[in-house]
Amino acid sequence: MQAPRIPENEIHRIAALHATNLLFTPSEERFDRITRLASRLLGTPIALVSLVADQCQWFKSVQGLDATETPREVSFCGHAILGEETFVVENAIDDPRFADNPLVAGDPNIRFYAAHPLHSGDGSRVGTLCVIDRKPRQFTPDQLEVLRDLAALVETELQRGQLSEAQRGLTRERDELKRKASIDGLTRMWNRSAVMELLGAELARAKRGTPMCVAMIDADHFKKVNDTYGHLAGDAVLVELAKRIRAVLREYDAVGRYGGEEFIAVLTNCKLDVAWSVCERIRKRVAGEFIATPAGPLNVTVSIGLAAYDAELANPKSIVGAADSMLYRAKANGRNRVEIKGIR
Fold first, then answer.
1. Residue 97 and residue 91: Cα distance in Å, rounded?
2. CA atoms of 100 and 80, how far apart (whole Å)
3. What are phi and psi of 317, to 5 degrees?
4. Contact assessment for residue 47 and residue 13, using Cβ atoms and an 8 Å cutoff
5. Rounded Cα distance, 283 and 149, in Å
6. Is the CB of residue 129 less than 8 Å from the CB of residue 49?
7. What pLDDT shows up at residue 343?
8. What DSSP string describes 220-239?
9. Beta strands of the chain (E only): which ranges?
10. Closest CA to 189 of 263, 251, 247
11. Per the residue annotation, which of 28, 197, 261, 262 is the catalytic one?
């Protein structure tokens, strides 16, 4: 196996990567949308936005894999960032650089790989948009152009930076290990402690006049899913719920896994009537389509409790408690509904 060499501008490149404030942060719909398109348009089971850090490659967006990162020394993307052109491996078994690579010899059994480098604002190659297949193949010139076009869309998002100020602050304040520990491994959202820290920061902004709301979102009858279909099916439900929630929320809203099958969304700069509309869209998005699981497609719904910041709900415990009480009301009133504290 040939490990990728280190670029000559590595120190500057790593600094540019960290300046994006995206390394070791949760999945975002704006990137997931592009990797879904890449997988569908190019017919590959795996598509990734990979950010190449000093010791690993971190998957900011991933379709078709459960992993969130791999060591840089075994990464294909570490090779792809060494040049400006699209990097293609048609059959890794026949390529002496990769034939004995553990990602080829074992899971995910890479055979075909194509990647286009991604640039930060200063032109540094900080990662790739790549597609992977478990069988050898060739890309046509048109398919290579599609990959390059989609990579350009990813670059636009890399350079745009849409996390809220509170979320950017959290990433700046934590080192790499703490940032990794802030992300829920299953859903690739903020975990409970991180999202509660973000909530505290957003409440401080709300006290200065910025409206905000908190939504507690819970999968209905989730224990029955686990008991009847098994925990693998339950995990598949939670992963898909996370994706559907992210798809509806604005890019700068903070969302995390609060515990078990419960999620919390912090809707910043958002009044109660708008927040209610957002929660209704989440509810309908979840209920509107079956969720694929190892046990077959399942019909899942969510109940949502919503509360807006006011003088009585000015700390994390009180506003989460208010939203949680609305969640219990939603479940008591028949589930698959949104209940709010106050008048829209």
1. 11
2. 18
3. -65, -45
4. no
5. 33
6. yes
7. 53
8. TTHHHHHHHH-HHHHHHHHH
9. 46-52, 56-63, 69-71, 87-89, 112-119, 125-133, 212-219, 254-259, 262-268, 302-308, 338-340
10. 263
11. 261
End-to-end Cα separation, the chain, in angstroms: 61
Structure tokens at 49: 């936005």
| Amino acid occupying residue 226 | N
Spatial contact of 267 and 253, defined as CB atoms under 8 Å apart = yes
Block means of pLDDT (10 residues each) for the chain, length 344 residues? 91 92 90 97 98 95 93 97 97 96 96 96 93 97 97 90 70 76 93 93 90 96 96 96 93 91 95 94 96 96 96 92 96 96 61
Q: How many CA atoms lie within 13 A of 31 on its CB side?
A: 29
Q: How many CB atoms lie under 10 A from the CB of residue 237?
A: 23
Distances (CA, A) of 69 to 59, 64, 309: 6, 13, 37
261 is catalytic: yes
Matching residue, tokens 């190659």: 125
pLDDT for res 162: 58
Kindly list the structural domains of the chain, giving each domain's residue range(s) and its CATH number in brackets, ordered by start.
10-162 (3.30.450.40), 166-340 (3.30.70.270)
